[in-house]
Design brief:
Elements (H helix, E strand, L loop, with lengths): L1 E5 L5 H4 E5 L9 E10 L2 H8 L16 E8 L11 E4 L11 E5 L3 E3 L6 H5 L3 H13 L7 E5 L4 H12 L3 E6 L2 H10 L3 E4 L5 H8 L5 E6 L3 H7 L3 E9 L12 H7 L2 E4 L5 H4 L1 H17 L6 E6 L3 H10 L5 E5 L2
Parallel strand pairs: 8-9, 8-11, 9-10, 11-12, 12-13, 14-15
Antiparallel strand pairs: 1-2, 3-4, 3-6, 3-15, 4-5, 5-7
Length: 328
């Protein structure tokens, strides 16, 4: 089979090579899956750079999120069948950017019938992260104001749709007019182009100086620091990631004085500590997709041969919406 592999760490466009490799074989509790579509995520670039929290042995195939078709079952697998369309994360070092990959049966989920392959592939990590962040960690309530940074990106776009589904007023922060249009299409009530406007001033204006009740921050750096200037009394600032490369040092005295919470979110840990909740969230997201309330916005569908370029462009922040690699 063909698969992209990383032999030496570096920038995705340089580190990823398309090669002929042996077909993987499912072990106990695993399923062999044929790729239908893989959603491109910022962690794919971090894997290539060796900066992700998971560091698979070299050589490895990147790609952390996919929709595929089950072609073989390992020993002890039940509840799945050959030919079934599924979504989830592959078992590294055999990632999603290959014609075949391996998945843990216990972490493999039915693909939502309402979504096509690329949309289904993009429903998993970003939407699960948004679901746990907004509902379990931040306890977002109807009528509250939600501020989403990187609102046209992978996790940000999911948070916009999930915030609207929860009855919140959503303010999306983006960089550039193309991304602003994406945020509007996703349903954001207010869109701020940070290159043209100060999001702190906009938040204060549209909330009557109250501030945002929940701030969803996958960016870190200055976005986090300035968010503390427009968070509401008893607000919740969700630390989701550090796409800017800057890891902020919170001023805990400021959190005390303004009476807000700094809430961490590492969604992957739920797969270890509460896998039942992950499956319940999948069922909820599938139901929302069936109602048409959530639907990943796929801006590009590229063939497998273009995967390295796609990962690089997502890493560089030059894409809008979600990018998917689809099987030819």
């Amino acid at each position: 089979m063909k698969a992209w592999r990383v032999h030496e760490l570096g920038e995705p466009r340089d580190a990823m090579r398309l090669e002929e490799v042996a077909d993987p074989q499912p072990g106990p509790g695993e399923v062999l899956v044929r790729l239908r579509a893989a959603a491109v995520n910022f962690p794919d670039a971090l894997l290539c750079r060796g900066q992700y929290q998971i560091k698979p042995p070299l050589p490895f195939t990147p790609g952390v999120e996919l929709c595929g078709e089950v072609v073989a079952l390992g020993d002890g697998v039940s509840g799945l069948s050959v030919g079934e369309r599924v979504i989830g994360s592959p078992v590294l070092p055999t990632g999603a950017f290959g014609e075949l990959t391996l998945m843990e049966a216990a972490r493999t989920f039915p693909a939502p019938p309402a979504l096509d392959d690329a949309e289904a592939a993009a429903l998993f990590i970003g939407y699960q992260t948004g679901w746990f962040g907004l509902h379990r960690r931040a306890a977002l309530r109807p009528g509250e104001t939600l501020l989403v940074h990187a609102a046209a990106g992978g996790v940000g776009s999911a948070a916009v749709q999930l915030g609207k589904a929860a009855g919140a007023r959503v303010i999306g922060v983006v960089g550039g007019p193309g991304k602003a249009e994406v945020a509007r299409r996703l349903g954001a009530d207010v869109v701020v182009d940070r290159r043209e406007q100060d999001f702190v001033a906009v938040v204060k204006e549209v909330t009557g100086a109250r501030g945002a009740d929940v701030i969803y921050d996958p960016v870190g750096g200055d976005a986090y620091t300035r968010s503390t200037k427009c968070i509401a009394f008893e607000g919740r600032l969700l630390v989701v990631g550090f796409a800017s490369g800057g890891i902020p040092t919170p001023g805990l005295n400021h959190a005390l004085i303004k009476n807000y919470s700094i809430v961490g979110l590492h969604w992957g840990l739920y797969n270890t500590y509460d896998p039942k909740a992950v499956r319940q969230a999948h069922d909820e997201l599938t139901a929302l997709a069936e109602k048409g309330v959530v639907k990943p916005l796929i801006s590009e569908r590229l063939p497998l041969v273009d995967a390295a370029d796609a990962v690089q462009r997502v890493a560089d922040g030059s894409t809008v919406g979600r990018v998917a690699v689809v099987a030819g």
